[in-house]
Amino acid sequence: MKHSFILWLAVSVIVMLVLPWLAVTFIKGDAAMVVCFLLFYVVNPIYSVMLGTFAGRDIRYLGSLPVISALLFLAGTWIFFDIGEIAFIQYMMIYLILGVATMLIFRVFRKKRRDRI
């Protein structure tokens, strides 16, 4: 599980830090706004759900991944956009809720499935 944790941590760094940096650095004008909307409303929520699903397989070792990912998002947006912006805290909380809720739901369904067998 240690390798899985490191792999998902690296993917979290890419999705939550590198992608916003790429959007700010290489895309200019209105296209940058479109890319940011895609990141905030499509890519990051889907990634948070995927991460939560994976973390639900072994909460003991991987349960901190949704929290780390949400904090990386906040760090990335504050570095590349505007430090202290309250809206980014709200987005972080939504991504955290998505990740943790998915993790717990996956864990409950997995446990019920194991109990049936």
What does this structure look like?
There is one protein chain. This protein has 117 residues and is mainly alpha-helical. The protein has one domain (2-116). The protein has helices at 2-26, 30-55, 59-62, 65-80, 86-116. Helix 4 (65-80) runs antiparallel to helix 5 (86-116). It is elongated and about 55 Å long. The mean pLDDT is 89.
Largest sheet: none
Helical stretch tally: 5
Unreliable stretches (pLDDT < 50, length at least 5) are none
Which structural category fits the helices and strands?
Answer: mainly alpha
Radius of gyration: 15 Å
Number of distinct beta strands: 0
Key structural traits:
117 residues; mainly alpha; 0% strand; 5 helices
Short description:
The chain is mainly alpha-helical and 117 residues long. 87% of the residues lie in helices and 0% in strands. Helix 4 runs antiparallel to helix 5.
Secondary structure layout:
Elements: H1 2-26, H2 30-55, H3 59-62, H4 65-80, H5 86-116
Helix pairs in contact: 1-2, 1-4, 2-4, 2-5, 4-5
